[in-house]
Amino acid sequence: MLHISHVLVRNIPPDPDESVSELVEHFFLVNHPDHYLRHQVVYDANKLADLVEKKKKMRNWLDYYQLKFERKSERPTTKTGWLGCFGSTVDAIDYCKEEIEKLGKEEVEEREKVMKDPKSIMPASFVSFRSRWGAAVCAQTQQTSNPTTWLTEWAPEPRDVYWNNLSIPFVSLTVRRLIVAVAFFFLNFFYVFPIALVQALANLEGIEKALPFLKPLIEIPSIKSVLQGFLPGIALKIFLIVLPTILMLMSQFEGLISHSSLERRTASKYFIFLFFNVFLGSVITGSALEQLKTYLHQSANDIPKTVGVAIPMKATFFITYVMVDGWSGVALEITRIRAFVIYHLKNWFLVKTEKDREEAMDPGSICFYWSEPRIQLYFLLGLVYAAVTPILLPFILVFFALAYVVYRHQIINVYNQRYESGAQFWPQVHLRIIVALIVSQLVLLGLLSTKGLEEATPALIVLPVLTIWFHKYCKNRFEPAFVRNPIQEAMKKDILERAREPNFDLKSYLADAYLHPVFKSDEVDKFYVADDPGAEEVIVATKRQSRRTTPVQSVQSKHDGSDRLLLPESVIER
Known about the structure:
This protein is an alpha+beta fold. The chain has three domains: 6-47 and 117-166 and 513-573, 2-Layer Sandwich (Alpha-Beta Plaits); 55-110, no CATH class; 240-439, no CATH class. 63% of the residues lie in helices and 6% in strands. The chain is globular and about 75 Å long.
């Protein structure tokens, strides 16, 4: 497993005397001389990555046409237009070779541009340290007197890095997050109306009005009972299928730099959406429009009573929803029918070579951003209905029992997890559990008020207060373990590691850990080494002295007349 000794530095201030790479190396050699090991600047290589991907696809097509030619002994042809469906007809093998050569030239030009153009180097860098202790000190402290520059944070592990967002300027991140927040608010608000429409059409009366010719079929007792029980849940499930994908795209636009943070942010959005639109909007009091009409014609004091009356009435809907969404979802997960169908669709339409077949057979990883919020919705339902309508609890318990067995098997034996986030999901999961507890307690207060037990309300108000206090206690006591690395623990691990592996070459081990995937080739490794001159020496390669990052003692150091800046003697002695 990769050593926890990496820090991501962002918002590096420009320096007229040094490039970003030289500036980073100089800054950390001066300010972290005992623990700094190496760094890797962040390049805006998104366009280069697109060219590499296009070239890879074109090579795949070339392999396919060559295999086809070997089987049939007849030169295959294709069209030069969109998806090979339009344009003039040409020899497929020659066309692919020409396109590969063309893309290769564009790739070389773009690669040279990324290497040489200062604008392609972002003001950010991955910095590696010799010890966990040094990385912990750097990641959890302020580097300069200006709190807006040299911002440090723990770097995600290399597999977890979402490279497309690393090239986004730091200043634009705040604007992007504001745009996403506003867009999510309107999405959450306006999604109520189509869900209400779908729920209305899912009722038998709505179907009979919209499609009167189906009325004789619907009135058959067996069909009517099935439709009444399962149709609303199925309609809601179908309407929510595309929502997680939309929320994931919003999180990507937000500028998060790791797959785990993308999934965590999307999971939070999805749970908020399920809570307000499924639980509160279209489930508790019927359609959103009916709910709005009811609330507008009553006082605020009567709202808890309305909610308390409506929740038991929706127990049947919840039972069918758990069966349709929960039980069937677990069954589909263990049988993997969806993956089976997708594989065969790819095999029929997309697979051209053995490499394509291997990629199509990849089981992928568990999608936390849509599976975890759904599980927490069922947990919320179980807590709410435990005291209101306990008949729902057996269905919830069966779901959790099946989900535990199935997902445990899938995670161990099927999925290929893309990254390790170090239990970063748990603080948010804990928060949503606390929210579910508070909601269940408030619903219980509303239910008791409908039963003429208003005297018990003051005594039960202490429940949400104690729950909030418990959350505050857990947050202060346990959350730092998820966001900080204690100095004492870091030192212990460093000592144990040096004792067990005294000759471990950490520098070569981390040589290309945070190098952009498009640069990981023999040719680019040479470039990477050339970009890190004097890595084994204590000499910082710079054009001249930096007036911003060099302390007074370094400014007074001697210059040897060459294009190199010698570090002060105190740094060299260390």
